[in-house]
Amino acid sequence: CVILDVQAACPDATVTQELLKDGFHRDLLVTVELGAAGEDAGGCAVAARIRLPPGIYVDPYELASLQQHNVTKAVLIPDTVDLEAPEYLATDLLILLYMEADPRCSRCFRAALPVHGRYHRPADGSEEALVVLKSPQVLLCCCDNRFAECRKPAEVEAPCLGKNVGPCQWHSLTHKTAHEESILQVPVGLRQHSSLVCVVTLLSTALCATLILAAVCKYGHF
After folding, report:
1. Using alpha carbons only, what angle is made at residue 49 by residues 43 and 50, rounded to the nearest 5 degrees?
2. What Å distances lie between residue 9 and 3, 12, 35, 104, CA to CA?
3. Which of 88, 121, 156, 199 lies at a 20 to 30 A Cα distance from 187?
């Protein structure tokens, strides 16, 4: 499948993204509304191409479970993710999120994706780190020759419906956004608390080790 740029003859779109819930575990809700030309896009697939910065990631095992239950359809690039890496050792991720038609609006599409914040370095004087999530790119994929005059060379390849089927041609729609970016606020530790955390951790470890050793001596068989 080939992703192609689109000129004025193609439908435009309005895209909105929202981060729901609080803390490290969030839901990213993406909504797309096609312009007037979108009335001619019946039978076409719509997707959002989302670039996640290092401070936020998608769990591929969670995504596979959601796709198995037909809850979310998406392609993760790369498809392997280090779930334990902190923000300063992680890399960007690319998500192709396939949109579902909104029954309340003939030109509207929406999809939700669970995302998770990574641990950041302790900060000085702030209990939150800000992760900036840019507005997604809106893509349109049609199985016929509609919008053929809009086609240009592609940058990324992906299947139409989240399966290894093809070929299909994606068009990048000209779009406007409700907000150019979303801000994810991730809780972080304070650097001035480092000594206290180390002491408490050491004492807790020593206490737990003592309790385990006492239980082994009392109930163990040697």
Report:
1. 145
2. 17, 9, 12, 26
3. 199
Answer yes or no: are the C-beta atoms of 152 and 185 closer than 8 Å. no
Quick check: 158 and 149 in contact, CB under 8 A? no
**Whether the predicted model's global pTM rises above the 0.85 cut:** no
* Pair 51, 94: CB distance under 8 Å: yes
pLDDT score at 171 = 76
CB–CB of 171/141 below 8 Å? yes
- The pair of structure tokens assigned to 133 is 């999530």
Ordered by start, the domain boundaries in the chain are: 13-189, 190-221
Element at 161 (helix H, strand E): none
Alpha helices in the chain (DSSP H): 60-68, 194-219
CA–CA separation, 126 vs 186, rounded Å? 11
Position 152 pLDDT exceeds 60:
no
The torsion region of residue 56 among left (phi > 0), alpha (psi -120 to 50) and beta comes to: beta
Rounded Cα–Cα distance for residues 140 and 145 (Å)? 12
